[in-house]
Amino acid sequence: MFKNTFQSGFLSILYSLGTKPLQIWDKEVVDGHIKRPQDEDIQSNVLEIIGTNVQSTYITCPADPAATLGIKLPFLALIVKNLKKYFTFEIQVLDDKNVRRRFRASNFQSVTRVKPYICTMPLKLEDGWNNIQLNLSDLTKRAYGTNYVETLRVQVHANCRLRRIYFADRLYSEEELPPEFKLYLPIQTLDQSWRWLLITIGIPGDIAAHPRDNRVVVCDLPGYPLTLI
Questions:
Q1: Could you give all domains of the chain from N- to C-terminal order, each with its CATH number?
Q2: CA-CA distance, 127 to 204, in Å (whole number)?
């Protein structure tokens, strides 16, 4: 899909304020809904994915099941709101052994499990809005000992609210982000609602908040200590 596109900086695949935010996505809804309500915290429209069963209500990109994204940028960011319900998302990547690997993060799982074709990881979100950032190159290297080549597919399941999903060539601080990639919150909710969650590998059992900028950096695979970067 983007394989022959020059890729640098940022590449957005979902923006809730876009005219057609799901233009390149497919959706599946069973006993739930996918709507675009106004979020009370950021006072603008967001994409809401709600379902009784997280596995049966989701959005997936690309829309064509036979297509792949072909995105080589190694950082994936999801600006997501914690609705205090079960939530999971999954990324499928291709490594330099030409093997498709999946990374699945869930807030209802407590242990990291690495299997030949899928790595499942626990996810803990702060209250309110979170910026989840995954270093896909690092994840692939640490989980499988191989090199990340490209992302093939992104799938986000219930239950959450989304502002944007994008790829980047490196990790950017909030100050470095373009204005349209920032989440602007009212002053009174800024401190308690906006958090950075950097997933380096494993995704959390425990979390540690960075004392300077409230970023949350997590890592819990055996042998890989919790680190702040």
A1: 10-219 (2.60.120)
A2: 15
